[in-house]
Task: inverse folding
């Protein structure tokens, strides 16, 4: 499996990340460390208690990392959640709707991580 095939498998934006990082070796270095970032764990922990500041910070960090890695779907979902909890923004989602959004983010995250694991085994 190539890095391009990995991105195709989980719907990532290879063209975008290749413009940022320039080489497949650099992309590989960062995408293979994605799970180590702890982003999903931080978001889960903050969402457990509906810690608005924690959710904003974790979702905003996820948006940035995923954006830089060309993980557009995850970046967009995280951005929407971050905006929901941005200071000064009036919440529009109920706690249950936030949990549903978190489940959606978690599913995208798991699909991405599983693809990365497959890539690492097959490269």
Result:
């Amino acid at each position: 499996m190539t890095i391009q095939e990995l991105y195709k498998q989980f719907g990532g934006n290879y063209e975008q990340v290749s413009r940022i990082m320039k080489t497949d070796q650099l992309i590989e270095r960062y995408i293979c460390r994605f799970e180590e970032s702890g982003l999903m764990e931080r978001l889960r922990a903050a969402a457990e208690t509906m810690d608005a500041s924690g959710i904003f910070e974790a979702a905003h960090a996820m948006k940035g990392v995923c954006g830089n890695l060309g993980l557009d779907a995850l970046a967009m979902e995280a951005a929407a959640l971050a905006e929901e909890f941005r200071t000064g923004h009036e919440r529009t989602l109920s706690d249950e709707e936030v949990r549903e959004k978190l489940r959606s983010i978690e599913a995208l995250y798991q699909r991405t991580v599983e693809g990365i694991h497959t890539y690492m085994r097959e490269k």
In short: The two ends are 6 Å apart (CA to CA). Residues 88 and 115 are 37 Å apart (CA to CA). The mean pLDDT is 95.
